[in-house]
Amino acid sequence: MSDLDDLLRGPVALAVTRVLIRDLTVQRRNGQPVPPWAPALLDALVRAGGERVDVDRFASETRRGTVGPVLMSETRAPEAADQTGVSVQYVRKLARSGRIRCRRVGRDWLIDVDSLRNVLGRAS
C-alpha cells in the first residue's frame, strides 16, 4: 500500500482528481447517481495533491443531484499574476473577457492558475 501512497502524491493525485471530477460530472449529466464513496475519495486525492476541495459543497451537490467543479485550484489575481509572471491587470482582463476559468467573489477574481497557464502558453 505504501507504493500506492507514494505514487498518488502531488501532480499525479491532482490529475486523477480532475479526471474523477470530470467523469462524475458526465455521469450526473447522463442521469446516473454519484457513488457514495466519491466525496471521501476526492477528499483523499485532493489532500494528497496539496489542493483544496470543498467536500461539504460536493456532498450537498451530489445529494441534490448536481455535480459542479469542486476542485479549488484557484488563487486570487495578484498571486496568479506572480505565479505566471504577468501583470495583475492582464490577469483581470483575461478574467473579465472569459478567456480563463475564474469566478468573482466580491471584488476579487479567483483564478484557476492551470487555465491561466494554458492561455498564456497558447499566446506565446
Automatic annotation (TrEMBL):
Chain ranges of the Helix-turn-helix domain: 78-118
Domain of life: Bacteria
Membrane-spanning parts: none
MF-aspect GO terms: DNA binding
Pfam families linked: HTH_17 (PF12728)
NCBIfam families (alphabetical): excise
Protein name, UniProt field: Excisionase family DNA binding protein
Organism: Phycicoccus duodecadis
